[in-house]
Predict the structure.
Amino acid sequence: MVVHSSAMLEVKGLTKSYGKLMAITGVSFRADSGENIGLLGPNGAGKTTTVSIIAGLLSPDSGEVRIEGKQVKSDTDPVKLKIGLVPQDMALYDKLSARDNLTFFAALYSLAGAKAKQAIAEALDLVGLSERAGDKVGTFSGGMKRRLNLAAALLHDPQILLLDEPTVGVDPQSRNAIFENLETLKKRGKTLIYTTHYMEEAERLCDRIVIIDHGKMIADDTLQGLHKLLPVTNVIAVELDHADGFQPEQMLALPEVKSAELQQGTLRIGVHDLARGAPGILRWLAENGHSYHHVSSEQPNLETVFLTLTGRSLRDA
Amino acid sequence: MIPFLALVRKDLKLFFHDRRAVVVGMLTPIALASFFGYLFGGQGGNAEMSKVPVLVIDQDGSDISRGLTTQLASEKSLEVKPSGLDAAREAVRKGKATVAIVIPKDFGKDAGHALFTDATKPELGVLYDPSHNAELGMVKGILNGAVMQAVSKEMFTGKGGREMVNESLAQVENAPQLPPADRKALRDLLGGVKEWNERQDEQRDRAGASGVLSGGITMPYETREQAITSGEDVAYNGYAHSFGGMSIQFILFMGLDAGIALLMLRQSGLWQRLRAAPLSRTTLLSSRSVSAALIAGFILVVVFGFARVVFGVHIRGSLAGFVGVCAAFSLMTAAFGLMVAALGETVEATRGYSITATLIMVMLGGAWVPTFIFPKWLQKLTVIIPTRWAMDGLDGMTWRGLGFSSALAPIAVLLLFTLLFGVVAVARFRWRTD
């Protein structure tokens, strides 16, 4: 007999509509302890709706969410203690100090006294804000606020951390600091559900990636698994001298070419076999009068995956 | 309990954090209450009232018209000045005079005849500023008394009166159609008046030039006013009402702000964090009520504390009743704020209609001006306005000096409104973010 232990988080067939607008349809995935799941999709794809339902902020029209096999049945259900939410909008009181903010958020989970102090100290230490604990949040930079926003969700030591675009509007340095915080949390066995529309973040942080577009789940796999879905394994990038008026679709007539797109003067051509495809492509460009000044090869990324699955670029979606 | 207390503490911290806003929030009701209190009688209720400017156009120039002018000028509440007709009309039109009284030519003579016969009554012209109807009524009342006194004095003891008696005696003697018995009776009556007038002249001569004889018909009574306050030796303090009224107004606005803040909170990430925590709707809403009520209580303490120290406003009635009314009103305000948050759709629209509702409650509750100046039907209507009960309760416990039993009805009604607003708030509050 095979015994299936219940997942830390299990999302089954979530559907939610706002009037006639269908926000998400049939979203399902699961996450185990220590697993980092990325919800990737363009703005308005339904990522925040999915996270809001998991956090109990929204009721789905159909489907269910289970935390270690249990559903959240009421506002005060202890199951909610297993979830920490990092909202996309900054959820802090600017007029209070960082410590006062965290003391308040800890108390919402009935943490007080020495336990609360210890949790606050650890959270501030993790996000590198211990020295600014007494300062008002209103004096913090955007990146520091984002880190404190993350710390506020960690105080009650949740098993699942829901991160809704936690790096929006922060500088690269703060973004790296947040990534390091999340990697530390992952090492501690936390389950992270990370929504983003930045493919680089999903590629760097996530064990598995759920791609959502127009409210529908179109893929759920590891990065390697998603690459297997692609018709090409290599991309030749050609920087054209004169890209105006160039029609990348005409390249599809070549037998080795599986995809072609032009972005900011760079022609990206997907091929299965780089050694066989490259000479023919460069010859075709020369014969048709398209000069170029640089050629390189690229491994396909999530952008390519999204383009392949939806027919649109993630940035343009 | 830890989350509940944390929510209350957080609200209080946020309120007191902005010290400048807190100070301004206290100073504004204090400044307005001080101003209104002064207007409504101030400390001791004996602030000097401004006199009504009255112009007199004397086109008659008779003893009666001069006596009338002197009589009006002796009134404490009037500031009487002589004037020409055109100048008086212009002054009233420009609002520099409230009333102008035109005494027409032959007024004295005609009024004397009209006093004893059915001769046509002469008219006094009264030009008035239509925006001062209340003062017009007062001036007309004073004018009636002054005319009666001036005319009767002249007719009973003056030269005009003696001339009229002589004329009447001659008419009696020269009226052949008059029955003899009637002639005799009238001759005796008028002869008696003539003889009495002659004796008055002799007395005046004996008294000398400085001698003053009273005369004329005057009001046959005097009034003795006594303000009924909390005690015989306790004067009315107009600041008590105005500080109560302004406290109520600004506390209501504070409650309104708390409701709108909750509405804004719903649109922020903070709301998502609160909702993600294991918190019940009751905990969240009741904590907001308690913090708003505590802030309202704080405002009342500060504002009435100032009134006590600076203007001598005492709680002459039951202290427990005063505290009870304040507490009930604070809770009602908190529930009102929650209801605003529950019924509001957008912050902008909610702010608009709730400010209107608050101002109506303040106005009809008697916080600006006492409700007795309202029409009767409106006075009856105001019993459905919670602020009316709060004002009655605060007035009762401060300057009226009433006992605790008089606070029970206001407390009960305010708590009923609290319950009503609270039920609406809980029932209509959109808990989910969708």
User: Anything to note?
Assistant: The mean pLDDT of chain B is 84. The first strand of chain B starts at residue 52 and ends at 58. Strands of chain B lie at 52-58, 78-82, 99-103, 125-128. The domain at 52-207 of chain B is CATH 3.40.1710 (abc type-2 transporter like fold).
